[in-house]
Amino acid sequence: MADRPWVTPDEVREYSEIPAVQKRSDARLTVDIARAEQYIITYTHNSFKDMEEVPQAVKTAVLILAEAYAHNAIVAAKEVKSETFDDYSYTAESTQISVEALDLAALLDDFVITEPRNGVTLRMRKL
């Protein structure tokens, strides 16, 4: 049985090249990891309970997604749209990472469990 969490905050820090994510506390990174794992469980309809260890592709997806969640939380907390100082003003555009842009499907599609359809399938043919 694969125990959660599947990755540790130290692994996320080691993977990330974003300095703000590397400085994030263990408690906050643990929440980001939990959110990433829940996203993957929901996406794949697979809790990986029947496996001894979570596959490397799934761990990689958790690392990528946890880093994105941490980055988005940092950006949302510091987000400043515009500031004005006397006769000088500027507008800053901060970009959040979109989950769809991470292309996690390439890592996770092999582990998706399709839910069976309920009901009867009819096949019709010409007489």
Structure characterization notes:
This protein is mainly alpha-helical and 127 residues long. Helix content is 45%, strand content 6%. The protein has a two-stranded antiparallel sheet with strand order 1-2. It starts with 8 loop residues before the first helix and ends in a 19-residue tail after the last helix.
Secondary structure: number of strands: 2
Q: What is the 3D shape?
A: flat
Largest sheet: 2 strands, antiparallel
Q: pLDDT average, as an integer?
A: 85
Radius of gyration: 21 Å
Judged by helices, strands and strand pairing, the structural class is mainly alpha
The span between the termini is 53 Å
Helix content: 40-55%
Which strand order do you get reading across the main beta sheet? 1-2
Query: Segments where pLDDT lies below 50 for 5+ residues?
Result: none
Number of helices: 5
SSE topology string: HHHHEEH
Give the amount of beta strand, in percent. 5-15%
Structure summary:
With 127 residues, this protein is mainly alpha-helical.
SSE topology sketch:
Layout lengths: L8 H7 L3 H4 L3 H19 L11 H23 L3 E4 L2 E4 L13 H4 L19
Antiparallel strand pairs: 1-2
Summary keywords:
127 residues, flat, 45% helix, mainly alpha, 2 strands
